[in-house]
Amino acid sequence: MKTQITNLLMLATAFLATEIVRAQNLTDNLKKGELLYQNSLTSKTDITDWTMEGPGVIEFKEGWMEMYSPDEKFHHVFWCPKL
């Protein structure tokens, strides 16, 4: 029984490795388009030209932006500036 489980795990590992390589080959052939916008969104200065629609709250903690609705009562949208 132990040998069968080991063989099954080895087969599954080989299959997954093959699928990972196949997926990497597929993505290698993709062509990237022009980058339209880039922003690290790590501090308040990064979002001065963005627009909040709704009662969303934005906070920055340890270089990460956190956006939420107080008491989860409403939806909100945070609009990227026009390009």
Keywords:
83 residues, alpha+beta, two-stranded antiparallel ribbon, 19% strand
Write structural notes for this entry.
This protein has one helix at residues 2-28; strands at 51-53, 57-61, 64-68, 77-79. It is α+β, with helices and mostly antiparallel strands and 83 residues long. The chain has two domains: 1-30; 37-83, no CATH class. The termini are far apart.
Helices, strands, pairings?
Layout: H1 2-28, E1 51-53, E2 57-61, E3 64-68, E4 77-79
Antiparallel strand pairs: 1-4, 2-3
Radius of gyration: 23 Å
What does the oligomeric state look like here? single chain
Taken together, the total number of domains comes to 2
The first-to-last residue Cα distance is 62 Å
Low-confidence spans: pLDDT under 50, at least 5 residues? none
- Characterize the main sheet: 2 strands, antiparallel
The portion of residues assigned to helices is 25-40%
Query: What fraction of the residues are assigned to beta strands by DSSP?
Result: 15-25%
Q: State the order of secondary-structure elements, H for helix, E for strand.
A: HEEEE
Number of helices: 1
Mean pLDDT: 86
Instruction: Give the beta-strand count.
Output: 4
SS-based class? alpha+beta
The outline comes out as: elongated
Which sequence of strands runs across the widest sheet?
A: 1-4
